[in-house]
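Postdoc handover notes: sequence design on the structure in folder B. Input tokens:
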């Protein structure tokens, strides 16, 4: 599908790549990097601006709003092959499925956006893990071989956008496989199994990085954890202190050796207890930074100074309150945008309760406040 943008790209004198790198390294910029993290599926079914223009997903929405461009390169660094998805049972309103991680989950039949109810993990004992490890975490699986030449062709050295390299997930995907409850029990009953699951993932990430680092000129590393909620981390402190941080360091050492000094991990919830471990391991940027489960981004940027960067942090609840609240919140972010090391956008996917007209006001106001001055 060809997407016709509904607005002009923000004026600028730098490439998107130059702008992103300078902003995240506290260097001079022509104007703020302009991006958003995306939208709930319901937005594409309810917002008139999407319905009237045939916009059906986040990729199309980015083109529609003419945001600045960035991209990323990933590899096969997790479970492969996944479990075949299978319908197990159903009720009038829900379906019970075996998902790609081997879990039994319950999902609504109407397909609305929600977190599934996790019933049971396939992995509950070390024997279960060994079976899955042998079948689905084989480092020699041909799927883990990277087509480096294809990546070079797709992302040439003279590109004008920032390019990220996947640094994987040490604990978030383990939590996915086990469920939150299963992870809690396993940490108590089988800590050696948990460490082996983390080590296995670390080795697969290292195997991928060894194939691409030095071959492609990356601008940053990216990862995914989602290992916190509004009440704090979903894994015990000792696991980060004694097991996970050392694996972060191994990955950090690899990317640092190739000049990559910016690394964000996607982690929702209250990340404050995890920040010392992230920073020690080399993760120095938070994304997409949820406000209500943590704090105003300025609090952490003030506390950690230039050791920390943040992407996100525009309170979605304030976006839903209308123009006055939107303006007041963006004004509270202005000093941090000016300082650098911070890119503002909605703190996670923008929900459908935000009025689309107010959302356009928000985009216009961002440009007025953070765009290039005449």
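Designed sequence:
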């Amino acid at each position: 599908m060809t997407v016709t943008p509904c607005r002009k790209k923000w004026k600028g004198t730098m490439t998107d790549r130059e702008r992103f790198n300078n902003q995240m390294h506290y260097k001079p910029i022509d104007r703020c990097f302009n991006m958003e993290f995306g939208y709930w599926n319901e937005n594409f079914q309810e917002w008139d601006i999407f319905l009237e223009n045939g916009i059906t997903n986040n990729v199309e929405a980015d083109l529609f709003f003419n945001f600045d461009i960035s991209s990323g390169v990933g590899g096969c660094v997790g479970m492969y092959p996944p479990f075949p998805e299978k319908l197990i049972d159903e009720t009038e309103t829900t379906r019970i499925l075996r998902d790609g991680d081997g879990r039994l989950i319950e999902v609504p039949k109407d397909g609305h956006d929600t977190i599934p109810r996790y019933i049971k993990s396939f992995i509950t004992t070390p024997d279960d893990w060994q079976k899955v490890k042998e079948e689905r975490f084989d480092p020699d699986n041909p799927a883990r071989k990277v087509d480096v030449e294809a990546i070079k062709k797709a992302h040439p050295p003279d590109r004008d956008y920032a390019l990220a390299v996947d640094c994987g997930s040490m604990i978030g995907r383990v939590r996915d496989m086990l469920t939150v409850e299963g992870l809690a029990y396993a940490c108590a009953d089988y800590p050696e199994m948990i460490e082996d699951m983390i080590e296995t993932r670390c080795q697969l990430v290292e195997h991928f990085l060894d194939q691409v680092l030095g071959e492609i000129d990356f601008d940053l590393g990216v990862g995914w954890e989602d290992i916190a909620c509004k009440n704090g981390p979903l894994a015990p402190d000792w696991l980060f202190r004694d097991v996970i941080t050392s694996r972060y360091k191994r990955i950090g050492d690899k990317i640092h050796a190739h000049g990559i000094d910016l690394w964000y991990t996607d982690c929702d919830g209250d990340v404050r207890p995890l920040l010392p471990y992230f920073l020690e391991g080399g993760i120095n940027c938070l994304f997409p930074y949820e406000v209500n489960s943590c704090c105003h981004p300025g609090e952490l940027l003030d506390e950690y100074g230039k050791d920390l960067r943040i992407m996100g942090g525009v309170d979605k609840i304030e976006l839903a309150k209308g123009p006055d609240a939107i303006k007041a919140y963006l004004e509270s972010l202005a000093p941090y945008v000016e300082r650098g090391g911070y890119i503002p956008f909605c703190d996670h996917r923008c929900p459908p309760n935000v009025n689309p007209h107010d959302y356009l006001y928000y985009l216009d106001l961002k440009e007025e406040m953070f765009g290039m001055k005449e």
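Context for whoever picks this up: Residues 191-212 form the longest helix (22 residues). Don't rerun without checking with the PI first.
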